[in-house]
Amino acid sequence: MGIEYIYSVTEIYQKSWARGADSVKTPDLNTIRPEEIQTILVRPVGGYRADMDDEYEMQLTGNRIEIYRNKMLVGVGINVPPSITDSLREIGGKTKGFPHRVRNQSGLVDVNIWLWRAD
Description:
Blueprint: H1 3-25, E1 37-44, E2 56-61, E3 64-69, E4 72-78, H2 82-90, E5 94-102, E6 109-114
Antiparallel strand pairs: 1-4, 1-6, 2-3, 2-5, 3-4, 5-6
């Protein structure tokens, strides 16, 4: 490879490296710290049965966390610790959640709530 070729493709590679660096800076469920993911207990409403592949939108209403799936209320948080509601209030009152475990006998669901703030 000649030096002319390297100079001609430098801009292309710099742009792709910059995109890669930006994607690494953005946290996801595999890169955030464990203390940023909390688990809450959810009681399904309206006969909803949770599936492990579900993804929830969680919204703080007063001191109660409501769980939505496809814009429909599917559950409410039970005995949510004040530390979680305070953290959720700090990040705007909305976040994502994913089922961690479904309790077969009671139908209750342990949901991982993502308390990451985009700064």
